[in-house]
Amino acid sequence: MKFVSHLLLILAAVVCLASCKSNVRKDGTPKQASIQLDSVDARLGTFPRSASTQSTVFTFTNIGDADLEFLDVDYSCGCVSAVYPEKPVRPGKSGKIVVTYKGRLKKAGRVYQKVYFAVSGKPSNFVLRIHGQMTEN
Questions:
Q1: CATH H-level superfamily of 29-135
Q2: How does DSSP classify residue 1?
Q3: Domain ranges of the chain
Q4: pLDDT at 2
Q5: Average pLDDT for 3-32
Q6: pLDDT digits (tens, 9 = 90+) for 73-96
Q7: Is 27 exposed, middle or buried (0-12, 13-18, 19+ CB in 10 A)?
Q8: How far is CA 3 from the centre of its chain?
Q9: Does an H or E element contain 120, and which?
């Protein structure tokens, strides 16, 4: 019985060391995610109020060496929403952020909205912007 408990203890220690070591580079510095966005600005163009829901896609890549997680999102207006990865994005992998503008209750005119993100990498914060012009018809 002691042999089994010692074996389990050794196995647990090996697993812990392996997982702890995987979060550190060879030089001893911690691994970190890093987000690279293809663009931070999107132009929606000119669109009528009858087609006031407009979406655009932003793409990004995790160029770091640790998983990238989205921690928080905030909007400049309730007329904007975003869909982004809920699960961590592995190093070297790409992802999409879909930003949607719903201007049905807004006045016709210039559209300029921002979406603020906090992530677990560098940079830790970034802003995506959408621009456009909504006409009456």
A1: Immunoglobulins (2.60.40.10)
A2: -
A3: 29-135
A4: 54
A5: 61
A6: 999 999 999 999 999 999 999 999
A7: exposed
A8: 47
A9: none
